[in-house]
């Protein structure tokens, strides 16, 4: 029952998220915020270039940014929730950083006796142009780092990008079925924990849940493992490439 209840709750919250009916659903919102705590911290730490914990003001700003993304997310307009959340969190934190920089600049001016007019705007570290350039460089680096980390994760399961190119189902229907099975495993705590513990697919349990033959499951094993690892990761940019497959 725990598997069914967990899948139902996850699907229910996703439906609310995708249909724009999260307003007033505090329990669903809190569940989604809690489930994405790690992503929120990592995003804030990445933007701020230092570790962020729950006591930091930056974490509160990032948490509010994710909450804002939950209410604004529309699957017809946005690539993915985490992509939208990343952008909103970045904007909110950049605004915060700019205000803090301006505040510290004013404090410095008071201590040095200089006037606002004597400070050329182009010398402000956090001006609009430098921020946009800085964050674009960060995004490029983030994508590169994600691919490296994903490759390292696949290697733990004796997989590589080259193998996946060969192993990926060639037919659309077969790929969709394999992806769906992988998604079911990734969203079931019991099946996912079994997969992580033994580093192999719990094929017997999967057969009892889906109408897919054992032969088909074994044929697409490598592809499903790669998808499970991806869906349970914080690889925001790589997930964009498969957003159309996620139900």
Describe the structure.
By secondary structure, the protein is mainly alpha-helical. The protein contains 13 helices and no strands. Helix 3 crosses helix 5 (81-112), helix 4 runs antiparallel to helix 5 (81-112) and helix 8 (172-187) packs across helix 12. The longest helix is centred in the middle third of the chain and has 32 residues, at 81-112. It is elongated. The chain starts with a helix and ends in a 7-residue tail after the last helix.
Throw out a few tags for this protein:
single chain; about 250 residues; mainly alpha; disordered N terminus
| Coarse shape | elongated
What's the rounded overall pLDDT mean?
77
Radius of gyration: 22 Å
- DSSP helical segment count: 13
Q: End-to-end distance, in Å?
A: 22 Å
Query: H/E order of the elements?
Result: HHHHHHHHHHHHH
Low-pLDDT runs of 5+ residues are 1-11, 118-127
Number of strands: 0
What composes the largest sheet?
A: none
Helix proportion range = over 70%
Strand residue content: under 5%
